[in-house]
């Protein structure tokens, strides 16, 4: 399996997310301030954390790679099951009612359904710009 799911979440959302899955994992490797790994046996699920930079909220993601590029994990199937639970939880708990546009290109706005946003972010994002890359001209907006 090679998969990722992108989202916008605040730190409280992240704590809730991590706490929900602690019973299904062997541990958490806090590799850096921006990136954690959930370990399941010899396999890992990446948590690239959403982060706030000034008035910007940068998207995060969960991702997994259990095959390809000579990958071979004994715990791959178990990690895939946990990853699938994580995806379902985000899709059940978050919304995907967003648009994306390049602010430098007229009429570039389009609806998307493959980024997910927490209720806290919806309520608390009034003064935030949602982006995938800091200072990028591509911005996400919540459909009200």
Can you describe this structure?
The protein has 144 residues and is of the alpha+beta class. It is 24% helix and 37% strand. The chain contains 3 helices and 12 strands. The chain has a 6-stranded mixed beta sheet with strand order 2-3-4-7-1-10. The longest helix is centred in the middle third of the chain and has 18 residues, at 76-93. The chain starts with a strand and ends with a strand.
Task: Record the SSE blueprint.
Blueprint: E1 2-8, H1 11-21, E2 27-29, E3 35-40, E4 43-48, E5 51-53, E6 56-58, E7 60-65, H2 76-93, E8 98-102, E9 110-112, E10 115-117, H3 119-124, E11 129-131, E12 138-142
Parallel strand pairs: 1-10, 6-11
Antiparallel strand pairs: 1-7, 2-3, 3-4, 4-7, 5-6, 8-9, 8-12
How many DSSP helices?
3
Strand-pairing-aware structural class: alpha+beta
Shape: globular
Number of strands: 12
What assembly state would you assign to the polypeptide chains in this entry? single chain
Strand order of the largest sheet: 2-3-4-7-1-10
What gap, in angstroms, lies between the N and C termini?
34 Å
Average pLDDT over all residues? 95
- Main sheet, how many strands, which sense, barrel? 6 strands, mixed
Proportion in helices: 10-25%
What is the CA-based Rg, rounded?
A: 16 Å
Low-pLDDT regions: none
The topology string of helices and strands comes to EHEEEEEEHEEEHEE
Beta-strand proportion: 35-45%
């Amino acid at each position: 399996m090679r998969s990722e799911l992108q989202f916008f979440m605040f730190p409280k959302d992240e704590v809730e997310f991590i706490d929900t899955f602690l019973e299904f994992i062997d541990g958490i490797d806090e590799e850096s301030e921006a990136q954690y790994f959930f370990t399941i046996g010899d396999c890992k699920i990446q948590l690239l954390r959403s982060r706030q930079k000034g008035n910007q909220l940068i998207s995060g993601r969960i991702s997994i790679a259990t095959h390809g590029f000579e990958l071979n994990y004994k715990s791959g199937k178990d990690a895939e099951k946990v990853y699938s639970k994580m995806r379902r939880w985000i899709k059940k708990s978050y919304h995907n009612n967003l648009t994306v546009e390049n602010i430098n290109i007229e009429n570039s706005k389009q609806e998307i359904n493959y980024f997910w946003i927490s209720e806290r972010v919806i309520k608390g994002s009034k003064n935030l710009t949602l982006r995938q890359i800091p200072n990028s001209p591509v911005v996400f907006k919540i459909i009200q």
